[in-house]
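User: quick one, sequence for these tokens?
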């Protein structure tokens, strides 16, 4: 009886494995390359070119001013850090 039950269970398990095959593979066609032409470069006129240069020079000046301010702030922070370290040293001594 045990042998019959065991063989029945083995057959059911094998039947489950056989029926659990993967489905048919899906074939996706390759993408065809598209040929698009690059847009022709615009020819700038003298007025827009000069306006762009002026704008860039103004931006450069503003950036340099910002960098100067940041450098001054960093120097102040370094001085504060140095003073804080000195205070720590003096408080540890006393």
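Assistant:
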């Amino acid at each position: 009886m045990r042998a019959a039950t065991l063989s029945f269970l083995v057959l059911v398990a094998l039947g489950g494995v056989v029926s659990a095959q993967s489905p048919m593979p899906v074939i996706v066609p390759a993408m065809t390359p598209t040929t698009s032409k690059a847009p022709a470069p615009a020819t700038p006129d003298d007025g827009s070119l000069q306006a762009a240069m002026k704008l860039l020079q103004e931006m450069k000046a503003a950036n340099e001013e910002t960098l100067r301010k940041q450098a001054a702030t960093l120097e102040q922070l370094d001085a504060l850090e140095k003073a804080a370290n000195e205070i720590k040293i003096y408080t540890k001594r006393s």
